[in-house]
Design brief:
The structure is a homodimer. By secondary structure, chain A is of the alpha+beta class. Chain A folds into 3 domains: 47 residues, Transferase, Pyrimidine Nucleoside Phosphorylase, Chain A, domain 3; 247 residues, Pyrimidine Nucleoside Phosphorylase, Chain A, domain 2, CATH 3.40.1030; 89 residues, Aldehyde Oxidoreductase, domain 3 (Alpha-Beta Complex). Chain A is 46% helix and 17% strand. Chain A has 17 helices and 14 strands. The first copy, chain A, has a 5-stranded mixed β-sheet, sandwiched between helices. Chain A has a 4-stranded antiparallel β-sheet with strand order 6-9-11-7. In chain A, strands 10-8-12 form a 3-stranded antiparallel β-sheet. In chain A, strand 13 and strand 14 form a beta hairpin. In chain A, helix 4 packs across helix 9, helix 4 packs across helix 10 and helix 5 packs across helix 12. The longest helix of chain A is centred in the middle third of the chain and has 18 residues. Chains A and B meet through helix 1, helix 3 and helix 8 of A and helix 1, helix 3 and helix 8 of B.
């Protein structure tokens, strides 16, 4: 039997903990045998002293073992998943998963709702009339075996230890710790059962990890954790200096996803989806090389097979496939109001987080889990970093249904734009790729 | 109103907190409005990021204000106090306070019981037959005004915030933080009401602050806190590389104190008492110079006035003054058993902490507050660092009343001695003096 005090002290003094010591702390805390004040001191010590890769793996595995594990063994083949550390206007799931499935990958994905400034794929899918985000296990398995794709809402109690620890971190300023973030994300991903996971770690003003170095450290830690747990891992590090694509909302993001599957979407969104998806195909063993993987992804756009796959999935999950061809069938806001530039110049900076909060203020996102959201509202950007703009020209079109919410959202939105007099380049988008072989700059 | 989260984060990120933020945290915690897990995370952040002198002062003052403050205004003149950070065989209080009072200083002291490996003055005093460690306030004031000395047990609820915070630190590995230690000690000393305080900060293997640098930092912080609170402060930094003097116990330490007051005590104990006491006299304004202060202290030994003062105090507090002349009247153990050296050589090292624990194992100390102690038992050292010893020669005489306890104590004691073949010098004893003018090496 260990002493809680000694384990805290060991970490405080910068020593690595054994698997048994980590299990003792985490399970003791989950069972209520270790009081929250000792766990809080421990977490703050981890904040300052970090964890080795081995410790992070053991922490993650222990949190995985604390709850249900999704058994995907009834689904044949290599199941591949994607996870993003969260951004603004991130429509990738709706684009890349159909492309991957159309190219021979197998996507059996459980996903979540939005919270705060970040949207959630489940909410976006629910803006498709009739779409069922909850499927019985058998139907989920059947769909994936048949059409190689299903996107459903996560209902299993995955990694409850993480949930309990996260609540404590959130109250004690110990969220911003790379091994703790990595453990939190990876415990849920490992419990969700995929054989391979491609991560999209965001960096920049709209991301959780503002600095590249932190994003890189987080990506490395998560790749280590996954590989040591026997999964195939790749992580890209990409920019969240400004919102991804043009649309921030729910139905309007679905519309943007459809355009992207048709080859008419925003280039940053398309490139991100092709890159992430190519890595998914490659680790799945479906593509013979990364070059082949990229070719397959681009083909699935040009030959329309990705769009066809989205329609198949919508139909298989009870949604109206006509809404994919005729996006007027998606929920709509009452009005579309342009928000105009207060001056001439060039867009120098967009605070992506603030744009996300502006969209939330319109009603597109929620503060608390129980809050209702308005699927039709959102922000459609007309100008991004580097674009020239004239005074009075629209920076964005707001899709809005409530005057008061519009006023608040407009105030936030305008404060998030910085317009300068000098020409600026658009921000770098792809930073690096991390896998078991190391880091490759992009 | 502040946010607890933001205050934790501010400290975590290495920023200094305002007086208002510190009050908010401490009083919120004391009132139960701030949960212990947030306080625990905060304390760990303080452990890593420290506090400025100003923050430490504000923390201390806030803890002082959380409880009773002893009002010594009914006692005329400059009241001077001494505090030691705790050591093994530390008989100084029983020696220096009578010497100071005999030389014109005023000692109105509240003191504590022993815990763990450290003895307590109250326990030692109780080994004098009839001695009352609890006096009504009026009697305490009357005694000091009349004979300039009273040593009583602390009963007031001083600095309850410190008590509550200390309990949490003790469970969360956040005790070893210099500003927190300084705040804890100084809040109780300031609340105890003396006008001047001389600190004896111990360093070495038997001390809380093993490293000199830590002891120095602690001394500086405590001097800053006291001076900023309007008290006259001096701190010495002295060695606890081996037990002080020869006796470790209760009655046997009283006996050693009496010998020292007669000029026949161990030289390290005598020098320490003279040094601390001279500083007490000097800050009291009773001596015109440090030279004069030293002379007064040494005189109080040679002319017997210190011993006479001890007798006066014993009588004034209901004790039998004959016990001072005839120490056979003090409690005695059943047996005195020599513990012999296992080899020839020179004493190279004594683990003072382990010797303290050996004395505790004999019954001289307590594990928990409620434990009873045996006033007669203890260890009388015959060999200290640098002494030559022959195999079979006694390293110490154990005063013991219980065979089983003796065996355990002997085992611990022998493990604490390191005997080498080469001659070694006794350890350096005085390191430095710290006051408002800075640090002077000794």
């Amino acid at each position: 039997m260990f002493s809680v005090y000694e384990v805290i002290k060991k970490k405080r003094d910068g020593n690595a903990l054994s698997k048994e010591e980590i299990d003792f702390m985490v399970m003791g805390f989950v069972k209520g045998e270790i009081p929250d004040y000792q766990m809080a001191a421990f977490l703050m010590a981890v904040f300052f002293k970090g964890m080795t890769a081995e410790e992070a793996v053991n922490l993650t595995q222990c949190m995985v073992d604390s709850g249900e594990k999704v058994d995907l063994s009834a689904i044949k083949g290599f199941k591949v998943d994607k996870h993003s550390t969260g951004g603004v206007g991130d429509t990738t799931s709706l684009v890349l998963n159909p492309l991957v499935a159309a190219s021979g990958g197998i996507v059996a994905k459980m996903t979540g709702r939005g919270l705060g400034h970040t949207g959630g794929t489940v909410d976006k899918l629910e803006s498709i009339p009739g779409f069922q985000v909850e499927l019985p296990k058998e139907k989920f398995v059947e769909n994936v075996n048949k059409i190689h794709i299903a996107l459903i809402s996560q209902t299993a109690d995955l990694a409850p230890a993480d949930k309990k620890i996260y609540a404590l971190r959130d109250a004690t300023a110990t969220v911003d710790s790379i091994p703790l973030i990595a453990g939190s994300i990876m415990s849920k991903k490992l419990a969700a059962g995929a054989d391979g996971i491609v991560l999209d770690v965001k960096t920049g003003s709209g991301a959780f990890m503002e600095k590249y170095e932190d994003a890189l450290a987080l990506a490395k830690t998560m790749v280590d954790i996954g590989e040591l747990a026997g999964r195939k891992m790749v992580s890209l590090i990409t920019s969240m200096e400004e919102p991804l694509g043009f649309a921030i909302g729910n139905a309007i993001e679905v519309k943007e996803a459809i355009q992207t599957l048709k080859g008419n979407g925003p280039k940053d969104l398309e490139e991100l989806c092709v890159n992430l998806g190519a890595n998914m195909l490659f680790i799945s063993g479906v593509a013979s090389s990364m070059e082949d993987a990229f070719k397959k992804m681009r083909n699935a756009i040009t030959d329309g097979s990705g769009l066809k796959k989205l329609k198949e999935m919508v139909e298989a999950q009870g949604g109206n496939p006509e809404a994919i061809d005729n996006t007027d069938l998606l929920p709509k806001a009452k009005e579309e109001i342009p928000v105009e530039s207060p001056s001439d110049g060039f867009v120098r900076r967009i605070d992506a987080l603030e744009v996300g909060l502006a969209a939330k203020a319109l009603g597109a996102g929620r503060e608390k889990k129980e809050d209702k959201i308005d699927l039709g509202v959102g922000i459609y950007l007309k100008k991004k970093i580097g674009d020239e703009v004239k005074k009075g020209e629209p920076l964005a079109i707001f899709h809005t249904s409530d005057e008061k919410k519009f006023a608040e959202a407009k105030r936030r939105f305008l404060a998030s734009y910085e317009i300068g007099t000098e020409r600026v380049d658009p921000p770098k988008f792809f930073y690096a790729k991390v896998d078991k072989n190391g880091v490759t700059e992009m």
